[in-house]
Amino acid sequence: MAGKYVSVDTTELRKFVEKMERAGRGGGFKKELNRFLDSLGVDFLSHVQDAIIRAESVDTRLLLNSFQKGENGNVFIAQEGALQIEVGTNVGYASYVNDGHWLNPKGVSTRWVPGHWTGPPEDKDARFIYEPGAKTGMLLKQKWIEGSHYFDEAVRLMERIAPMYMEEKMQEWLEKYFSDFL
Predict the structure, then answer these.
(1) Does the model's pTM come out above 0.90?
(2) Which residues pair with 166 in a beta bridge?
């Protein structure tokens, strides 16, 4: 058996590797990857907005509208390196709506909030409007307000559907850049 060798033709493998290098260097693939990440981020923001609406967490629409790409002060990062997508909001109370909160600070059993109602307080469509210095208002007793978990719901949804998006996109890229090898 000494002196016997196996001969393997690696021409196609070399062509494939060269094509991968060209796809990476050419910039076209990188641009497509950035567009894909950006679209994933926008899609996620849409799921966050849908979850806010389903949870009926919207009053002035400030929270809902804060989850948009490019809003002033928002966080929106789509990164190619470690495939990072980061979104956020500039609304300070967003985490209270998501996670829940106490109506009053720790140790405070009641708190007066000046303002007025747009209708009878028992009317489900009536809204309380905060108005500093108003002679009318409402007395808040210490109570836990359960969060709507809108953000958590959107994250769970994206964790389920993102792999499908990724698989479809990978197949599209394979067909586009390497069709002659498939």
Answers:
(1) no
(2) none
